[in-house]
Amino acid sequence: MNKAFDFNPYEALKSILEATSLHIGKDFIKSAADEIKKLYKADLVFITKAVNFNPTTKVEVLYATNKNIPKEFELVGTPCELVFQNKIVEIHENVNKDFYKERNSGFESFYGVPINNDGNECIGHISIFSKEKRKLAKELEDIALIYSRKIEREIFRLELEIENDKIREELEKLTITDPLTNTYNRRHFINSCSDLFQQVKRCSIKATLAYIDIDDFKNINDKFGHDGGDKVLTEFSNILKDQTRNGIDKIYRIGGEEFCILSINATLDSTYLHLNRLMNTSNTYFENSQYGKITLSVGLVEFTKELENFNDLVNIADKKMYQAKKNGKNTIVK
User: What is the CATH number of domain 186-333?
Assistant: First the structure.
């Protein structure tokens, strides 16, 4: 049954530590699994973290030396389940007979090492499978435990990185998002408009800018109060989002009751038709609400290379919006 391991365990440990000393996080976990596979002369090594606790029934695979291992799996029916009793598990033979999920794997032996946190709770494990019937040298247990502790620290580092990334994304979102309507804000509009203008100047993409104002919005605030006005803005922004063309339109609230839509790779005529549909949808929605008829005045312009800068474009769209108001409101001027 025993397969000979002709190695000096301390030299082996030194070799693995040197091989992984330059890595952290995901790279460390990958390097550790690859080196453990070599050291233990294994056919498969993977490292996991628990998905749920008390009891742990499912794990996420952080890295596996075999790409066919799923990213997550249920523990029941595998020898891995035993490790989450927080103990080292060594099975010398018949893994593919005694565990129904391993019946087609060809694995005979298994060595599993828990990964514990500072509270001695099992938060993951190292799995080492072999197609040989064998019993491992006792010194290998010490090496596995050392790696278990190092992997725990890297799992903690990864979780901190993920949490920091989430915080960073939230902060970035806050800097570009209008808090009331959850559309993009004026700051992001200026940056987006500038970037898009430069793209139009450099190449042949088409783009349009729609400058939208809700007509007589002061009357809404006077009649329904600022809470009612905020509700209208929120509901109108939801209509804009519902009508957004995927990969074409981006919506911005640039102040008060004014919104802008930047449309990429869209012609003036196609955007005009789209805005007509949007206005009809908005009119119908509000006519059937407590707020009654609410209309829009829209100025529509196309990005052109002839303009000096994007501010000229915005000013033209703004003037066209005011022309729409002079023309009786509830209309588009292009």
Answer: 3.30.70.270
